[in-house]
Fold this sequence. Notes:
Elements: H1 3-14, H2 20-31, H3 34-52, H4 61-70, H5 79-124, E1 133-134, H6 138-145, E2 164-173, E3 176-185, E4 188-196, E5 203-210, E6 213-220, E7 223-229, H7 233-248
Antiparallel strand pairs: 1-2, 2-3, 3-4, 4-7, 5-6, 6-7
Helix pairs in contact: 1-2, 1-3
Amino acid sequence: MTCDEAEVLLHALLDGELDAGHAREVEGHIAGCPHCAALLADYREMSKAVAGADLRHTAPPLLRRRIEASLPQTQAPSRRMVLRGFAMGSAVSALAATGLVAIVLRNDDEQRILSEVVSAHLRSLQAGHLTDVVSTDQHTVKPWFNGKLDVAPPVVDLTAQGFTLIGGRLDYIDARAIGAIVYRRRQHVINLFVAQTASTERHAARTETIQGFNIRRWGDRGLNYWAVSDIATDELNEFGEKFETATAG
């Protein structure tokens, strides 16, 4: 493991977010690398300082009384009103149950896929796992995917915009092969996972953080995209916007 790869995982190690295998690799590197060991020590001191700081603010009792006083006063419900409410609630619950279960299952499925995306990103950071085809030329990377996937992902060279194309590889998300296009922003790796989907509708971009990594996901013209990196959210959004603009053209 190189210093660049270890530095990407130091925060995750500190927060206990790495699996046993990755944790051993990072710890093994730190044991023989004074530079990374010093970085980890600095991060630990910073974490202790933040945890020890008195950052809580308790609202005064007067504020609670003012809020309660501003609430509308309602009469106590009668027995008939309560029974009518139960009856209506049962009917509404019966109608909503199926939809609610579907929403919960869909959300669970989305979270599972996001977790798999982060795991694939972490695997790629191990030595020799980042790229199957190494090239800064989009006309070399894109044809490499032909025949390996049902639909070859779009490959865009964003080097002039500050995001260097370094290659691509096959990865596996949700038990199927998908394309991963790899970019670099300074010393940070950006994995852009691309998977075919049955929907042709455009899905607006959403950004969230899982296990210390930022994920920007969106959908367009039958493809789903997940951009994953430890760069700041605004930089990852900038990458996604530039990629979307380039592919829209």
